[in-house]
Fold this sequence. Notes:
The protein is of the alpha+beta class. The chain has helices at residues 29-32, 67-71, 98-111; strands at 40-43, 49-52, 58-62, 76-80, 88-92.
Amino acid sequence: MSTSATLLPAVVSPKADARHWLSADHGAGPVLDLGALGWAFVDTPDANVHATSPDGGVYVGWLPEDPSAWQRNIVWHVQVQPANGDARVQEFGLSPPSEAVAGFLAALVTSSSC
Length: 114
């Protein structure tokens, strides 16, 4: 089958300067926006943040000042506790931008039946 080139979508290549929205400061802002969705947050005196989904099935920890997290080279700890089954854990270091962690969480909570 042949398709006319006018019917195909245009190829879009993002320019390097178009990626300025990715966090360079490793801040928790994009993930902390979950508060608008009813997530409960606890801030610790040493600047760590712990968040739990409204149903209690998902926990996210932003741990920039947790010595045990730094020893494991992580700053994000995500844990899902399904209604039936073992907990699942995913941890992220400094490499992924906060928006990527927020995207992971968004996909997790919208496609999971915790």
